[in-house]
């Protein structure tokens, strides 16, 4: 039995079939020809039910399933998201991702070329983020019971020795910073779905944030009190979760919100509030007021942080609420996103 | 904004909608009312992007996505599988599962009562296996783009100090043991799908195997050379993977295979070979010949191991092949499952 025979198999050229999820020969062939060589490392080479390694000290552990539609969009694809998203979830815990798991749920009929393309992006994103994909799983569901490809990644990373990230460390007077322009990812997806055209393409901001977090923690340690990447639900949801947990308020300044012109125009056109639109490459940091200008300066000197801005302050007033001061000086409460705005954005 | 308001929300009684995957208020409410309280622990209480804890020493890390259909079947459900399956993958690495992640991909329209029922089984299975669900994710896809509920769990566990499990430690003469009757899980699923009726119900064998593995390693340490749970693809696939990796053979004895009568009858009726049918509560152990009788005795004294049997021997002959000696003394090669036999069995 030659397991190195190339796909296509069973006379079906270049299509993933139910047999590829059987756990038998076809699964074995798919993994051998498409996955193991590409993502090669010592752990994956063992082809065991799991990967084994040594860990010492404090670690973070996170998981996310990615169901973004379409699979490819301006600035990225589901493969990038699946790596960067979990790297970023760990980074928000103050951890540098090291080991990732990778699990596919494939709809029967997915073109093999598309699967390969996603795998290439997974490899590139993993290399860029310095993580090893050490274990995985592949399932195939019948046509009409999935949607091309869903990916789960889970990750483990060592926590930075100076990290002390917890919402209970936030006090009134702390400063809220975002590391870049908001709403780009969501609008990139929407521009494809709605067939919108702009002078310059609206691109997803998908990007790993671990280096940015690492440098901030190197320099500012426990002065960095809270980190969160505003993905689904956008900036508004992250800030509402924070104010709910801390029983403090946030006063946010609309003028200071970094927002790309094209993205703003796209939001306007579709009647979407950029505060609720998903991001995949920025973070919210709550830091001590004393270091806020230095943190801002540091972020602006980093790749991906050039547009960082101080957007608000933690307050004792408006406990549990996020209040936005508008361009014309009015105040409004920014609630949680009440329903669904942009399904399957990540 | 009262986040403790019970579901139903938005006038849709007891149904999961796209809004529950928005990352906004409805996601928040679903998690608060249905998940966090039920699965409560110190890590989950933090409601961060990931869980943090300390680890010291050798660990195993594993992932699996569960797409079983139907969600409930005799002897178990997707919730049991999602916990036991990952606990068992870790056990096969010689590790005792400790921390699990839990990620849902829900099809819009799933009944909330069904989701709750699955969650209850998840909780019970996690308690039975002594694992904490420390982090998670919830996505919702549109009707017709999923199939009720898919679950991913990933897990981390400490490796037993006496574990030395690697296929490269297997030598000719080693003995192959299975811990229980084969093919029960797959036939339980098939009996539902095909509406088969038997005198007594054919039940899935889903069960956590960590205690069994722990006890074997306590007693026999490095004499236990290889462990694998024969899920998708069944016993035949696990043995083929082993012979391929070791370049050794396995001579297996059909008479000695533990197989329940009802399960055998169901396989016969559907024209399925039990060697390829999925299991969820047994394992294959390859052990030194000198301890094989003691291992067998130990297994038979454990819950879930009563039907354990020595089923074969590792051979220098038939390199890379699994050979079955039939009841009437004939020999045949048992290959990898060539195509798909039972889709979505786990």
Cα gyration radius of chain A (Å):
21 Å
Q: Into which percent range does the helicity of residues of chain A fall?
A: 25-40%
Strand content bin of chain A: 15-25%
Strand tally of chain A is: 13
Question: What is the rounded distance between the termini of chain A?
Answer: 40 Å
CATH class of the largest domain in chain A: Alpha Beta
Corresponding CATH architecture of the largest domain in chain A: Alpha-Beta Complex
Could you say which structural class the secondary elements and strand pairing of chain A correspond to? Answer: alpha+beta
Unreliable stretches of chain A: 1-7
Q: Name the largest protein-protein interface in this structure.
A: A-B, 90 and 91 residues
Report the average pLDDT across residues of chain A.
94
The CATH topology assignment of the largest domain in chain A is Phosphoribosyl-aminoimidazole Synthetase, Chain A, domain 2
Note the total helix count of chain A. Answer: 9
Order of strands, main sheet of chain A, comes to 8-10-7-11-9-12-13
What is the CATH superfamily of the largest domain in chain A?
A: PurM-like C-terminal domain
What oligomeric assembly is this protein in?
A: homodimer
Main beta sheet of chain A: 7 strands, mixed
Can you tell me the number of structural domains of chain A?
2
Domain PurM-like C-terminal (chains A, B): 172-324
Domain PurM-like N-terminal (chains A, B): 49-158
Organism (chains A, B): Chitinophaga silvisoli
GO biological process, one term (chains A, B): protein maturation
What do these coordinates show?
- Two copies of one chain form a homodimer.
- By secondary structure, the first copy, chain A, is α+β, with helices and mostly antiparallel strands.
- Chain A has two domains: 18-159, PurM-like, N-terminal domain (60s Ribosomal Protein L30, Chain: A), CATH 3.30.1330; 167-333, Phosphoribosyl-aminoimidazole Synthetase, Chain A, domain 2, CATH 3.90.650.
- Helix content of chain A is 30%, strand content 25%.
- In chain A, β4 (95-107), α4 and β5 form a beta-alpha-beta unit.
- In chain A, α3 (78-92) packs parallel to α4 (112-129).
- The longest helix of chain A has 18 residues, at 112-129.
- The two termini of chain A are 40 Å apart.
- The model of chain A is unreliable at 1-7 (pLDDT under 50).
- At the A-B interface, α1, β1, α3, β4 and β5 of A face α1, β1, α3, β4 and β5 of B.
